[in-house]
Input
Amino acid sequence: MIEPDHPQLSIQRQCALVSISRSAFYYQPAGETSLNLALMRLIDEAFLETPWYGSRQMARHLHRQGYTVGRMRVRRLMAKMGL
Output
């Protein structure tokens, strides 16, 4: 698709030809942090015991276990996990 080492076309021109921005070409997604992975594991374990927990109750559950985590973070992680 886009060849960074093309001798005649610059990356800027190649991106323009395929209608993407240069930032989209250079973008490399960051993986989940180790804390988020640990939280996802805890959410998964709690969800197996209490599948009716939504993001609010799950956030409270994590607070009781000593994790400072917001409801929206729990919501995003649960959505990423498909829960």
